[in-house]
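[job 0412] stage=complex_fold ligand=zinc ion status=START
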Amino acid sequence: MVNPLLYHKQGWIEVICGCMFSGKTEELIRRVRTALIAKQKVQLFNSSIDTRYGINSITSHNQNKVAALCVKNSSEILPLVEKNTHVVAIDEINFFDKGIVDVCEELARRGKRVIVAGLDTDYRAEPFEVTAALLAKAEFVTKNLAVCTKCGNPASFTQRLSKDKKRIVVGTTDAYQARCRRCFRKPRATKAK
Ligand code: ADP
Ligand code: MG
Ligand code: ZN
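[job 0412] stage=complex_fold status=DONE, emitting structure tokens
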């Protein structure tokens, strides 16, 4: 039988994943706003690689915007998280180094609600290791889909429009499109990362 005396407030990890334009950032902002309405202390982080909409804020493709701390790598996060923070939200998790997985686990261990959003796959439809690991370790996972720009079916693939072979190329509608399984064309493999 459950012993109510053993109850303790505990943290957990929520992952919001999906392709580009699937509303990950919008969903992250929605959850943050709800926590703020409940008067909880929220700290938001974004990668300094994501320069699309200016630093120190998180902005969705429909221009919904909230303030965020911009960090270069995962090791900067723990020292910035304050003791009385209830919720730690991190956008573009796929831009971070492997250390972000341990950072999220440590925050959850400290009793924080950790909400992360990011791409589950890259421009070749290969999983981002960091997102994949967090999906496996999270308590709650949400996969969003976008609308295929070619046919209108549900889209879970990110089609890069340029021939760039780097894994991370920051861009928006000029550089990427959401595509369904049938309309996605996988670019050829390359050694370049
Ligand atoms: P993500 O963070 O997943 O890239 P955002 O939350 O920033 O997505 O933006 C989602 C918004 O993008 C949608 O609400 C919509 O206004 C816009 N959008 C643009 N292209 C598409 C598309 N092909 N499918 C769905 N939404 C799109
Ligand atoms: Mg986003
Ligand atoms: Zn399609």
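The domain at 4-145 is CATH 3.40.50.300 (Rossmann fold).
[job 0412] exit 0
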